[in-house]
């Protein structure tokens, strides 16, 4: 049994056809922007970073010094005031969640397209304001799994009925945050900056959105449970660990688990009436990914070499904006995830099933 006819490990099932190069201001120069975003944009033909925005003068100076395309380093106040506004066409917002809104509002005010990291904001209400601010400019939410080739292969296999009708989705993602950062006051563990929790807001969005993407459907209800052992790392959040179930149309369920204090691993699995697909390690980029397909005809697997997910995401975003094409992961799409995340916390707190 082969994957003949399905997306290969070095192919896209979408094509960048728009002419030109999109110039982007990178708002927020934390480790993700410095280590993943700026390198991804270094040799991308249709998208380039021209402006770096940060509250740290050292980070601004480093971005300008290290990346030839970055001609301007701005403070947040300088960005809001419109300095170097003619040097960029779009804005990528990668600050703590609760700071997305003001930067997106600034970008929209200047008529710039927006690529906003997920989750869009720290609450549904602020996310709704963010979407409203972008009424007249393109807005895309940074769901990198939607441009990941392995995830798109899973979607294609499900759409074409290779595993029959979907029955159950399993999604897991965990990492030891205390080994990644040396400060328990890190913003992902601060409700004022991250939102209502830590594991669901930061990691849960991956199985939530990937389930929606693969099934091409939105959940109708959620049940959930969270647990936190406290201590200096998790005393401010309810979800050191979390498990939740999403009910989709036609009786399909998604069983999801996440933790910021566990072994780094991930997996996404779709079980259908005629087979199953497993993607492992799934949600983590910059590492080898493997798909396993099992049906009555046999079992097979395909390995995807490490791909630069941010490079694919920016290439797709630039093509959508330059070509004035529809954006699938737009603001309304992102609002669904915001409402699901909020419902997970509500369901865990009151122990009831929450309907959408």
From TrEMBL:
Keyword GTP-binding: no
KW Oxidoreductase (keyword) present: yes
Residue intervals of the GFO/IDH/MocA-like oxidoreductase domain: 152-278
SUPFAM superfamilies referenced in this protein's UniProt entry, alphabetically: Glyceraldehyde-3-phosphate dehydrogenase-like, C-terminal domain, NAD(P)-binding Rossmann-fold domains
InterPro entries: Gfo/Idh/MocA-like_OxRdtase_N, Gfo/Idh/MocA_oxidoreduct, GFO_IDH_MocA-like_dom, NAD(P)-bd_dom_sf, XacA-like
Domain of life from the UniProt record: Archaea
Domain Gfo/Idh/MocA-like oxidoreductase N-terminal, residue spans: 22-140
Keywords: Oxidoreductase
An example molecular function term from Gene Ontology annotations: oxidoreductase activity
Family stated for the protein in its record: Belongs to the Gfo/Idh/MocA family.
NCBIfam families (UniProt xref): XylDh_Gfo6_Halo
The name this protein goes by in its record: D-xylose dehydrogenase (NADP)
Species, as recorded: Haloarchaeobius iranensis
């Amino acid at each position: 049994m082969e994957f003949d006819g399905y997306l290969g490990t070095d192919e896209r099932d979408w094509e960048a056809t728009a002419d030109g190069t999109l110039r982007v201001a990178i708002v927020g120069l934390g480790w993700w922007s410095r280590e993943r975003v700026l390198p991804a944009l270094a040799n991308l033909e249709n998208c380039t970073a021209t402006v770096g925005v940060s509250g740290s003068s050292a980070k601004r100076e480093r971005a300008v010094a290290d990346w030839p395309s970055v001609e301007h380093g701005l403070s947040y106040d300088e960005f809001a005031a419109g300095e170097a506004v003619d040097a960029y066409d779009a804005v990528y917002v990668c600050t703590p969640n609760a700071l997305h809104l003001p930067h997106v509002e600034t970008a929209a005010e200047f008529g710039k397209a927006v690529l906003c990291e997920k989750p869009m904001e720290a609450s549904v209400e602020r996310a709704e304001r963010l979407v409203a601010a972008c009424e007249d400019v393109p807005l895309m939410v940074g769901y990198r799994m939607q441009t990941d080739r392995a995830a798109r292969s899973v979607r294609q296999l499900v759409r074409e009925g290779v595993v029959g009708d979907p029955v159950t989705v399993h999604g897991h993602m965990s990492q030891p945050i205390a080994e990644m950062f040396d400060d328990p006051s890190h913003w992902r563990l601060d409700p004022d900056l991250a939102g209502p929790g830590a594991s669901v807001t930061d990691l849960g969005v991956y199985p939530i959105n990937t389930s929606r993407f693969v099934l091409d459907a939105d959940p109708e209800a959620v049940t959930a449970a969270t647990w936190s052992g406290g201590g200096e790392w998790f005393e401010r959040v309810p979800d050191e660990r979390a498990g939740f179930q999403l009910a989709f149309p036609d009786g399909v369920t998604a069983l999801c688990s996440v933790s910021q204090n566990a072994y780094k691993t991930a997996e996404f699995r779709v079980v259908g009436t005629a087979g199953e697909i497993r993607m492992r390690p799934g949600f983590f980029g910059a590492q080898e990914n493997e798909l396993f397909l099992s049906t009555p005809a046999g079992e097979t697997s395909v390995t995807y070499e490490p791909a630069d997910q941010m490079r694919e995401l920016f290439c797709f975003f630039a093509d959508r904006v330059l070509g004035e094409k529809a954006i699938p992961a737009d603001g309304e799409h992102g609002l669904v995830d915001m409402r699901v995340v909020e419902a997970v916390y509500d369901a865990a707190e009151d122990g009831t099933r929450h309907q959408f």
